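Hi R.,

Quick one: here's the SAM-dependent methyltransferase sequence you asked about.
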Amino acid sequence: MDAQFWDERYRGREQMFSGEPNGVLVTEITGLPPGQALDVGCGEGGDALWLARQGWRVTAIDISEVALRRAARAAEAAGLAEGMAWARADLTVTPPPANAFDLVSVHYLPLPRRADHSGLRGLLDAVAPGGTLLFTGHDLADLPPRAEGDIDPHAFYQPAEIAGLLGEGWTVLVDETRPRNRPAPPGTHHTHDTVLRAQRLP
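And here's the predicted structure, written out as tokens:
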């Protein structure tokens, strides 16, 4: 699931996603004072544009150059390009800047599990003191039986697992499985989300 994989997947469809923000993002972040936000795995920019409309200054990253170009065009068309930054990044190779973001927002990102948790630690370190981590996944109970050769979803971090790794420098505000408040993408069967919202202590 490298950059080539995702570029080819995006090229295979004129539009991969609806352009609307994730429902968990809207539910959890509405009303939070805006600041610097990092949208991780931004895709075609639905979440990033919503955050910008709420007053956030957004840095949006993705491993796919194709997705980033689409997102940047959407921001231009919406008159939101000023104050937004788009960057190709692979978190398993290069972590984001430490202590830099009041919100780190991650939705349905297949972040590979590592024994030393290096990729995850870099992501957590990006949250500024007092800032918020929002990490959403699909409930694995919704997934059909895995066929031979399929990617193992257990090879990637799940929100509840991350909650257990945060340590004393964090306050966990939400750690739960809940019904999706928006329809799943066509062709999928996701009925529930797993949600972690945590605040890094000042």
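The chain has a mean pLDDT of 90.

Cheers,
M.
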